[in-house]
Amino acid sequence: MCVRCVLYSLFLIIFLNEAAIAAGCGSRGGPGFRGPKGNCVGWKQLSKVCGTPPTSNCTFEGAGEGDTDFEKGTDFVNAGAGGSALTAVGADAARTTKAFNQRVVKDDGIACASTSLLSTLNNCATETDDENCTAQIEVAVRNGQCTKIIKGAETTIEAGSGSFEWVRIKLLGVKGEYWINRDLVLE
């Protein structure tokens, strides 16, 4: 075998191994965790394989592009029961979020327990009668089906809808999971 062929083969092996190592688990849009058996863990298996928090059983290697811009958030507490608005604790509560799925709400909005209700309320707000829409939103908040969220509220993203138009979040200080427009928490 020729020396040039051996060197070329050796170069390819080294180059491909380095590229695979540098890619990491989050390089293709995954959450960026390597499981206990050494394999990359996807979004569907994250809580089952890694646990809660994911770093309890898995190693964080870095999230995919767009998931690395950690933001500073302010701790928020629930102002009352079920569907009331969130209020800030204060400037002393500011801290840096550390997990890849912890985000800060970018603008005031509404989060609902179902995507169908969220879609209905969003369509209402973009169409005609503002007073009727405001009344529908207030009823949904009062019934605990939705909650008002304010800019700066800290959230944990748990899942995305099939169309990824909405994401399911957990709000700090609020029981239950809510759906929100993805534009309010993601780039």
Describe this structure in words.
27% of the residues lie in helices and 24% in strands. It has 4 helices and 13 strands. The protein has helices at 3-23, 46-50, 115-126, 130-142; strands at residues 33-34, 40-41, 59-60, 72-73, 76-78, 86-88, 95-96, 102-104, 109-112, 146-149, 154-160, 166-171, 178-181. The protein has a 4-stranded antiparallel β-sheet with strand order 8-11-12-13, with no helix packed on it. The longest helix is centred in the first third of the chain and has 21 residues, at 3-23. The chain is elongated. The chain starts with a helix and ends in a 6-residue tail after the last strand. Mean pLDDT is 70; it is low at 18-22 and 64-97.
How do you describe this structure in short?
It contains 4 helices and 13 strands. The chain is of the alpha+beta class.
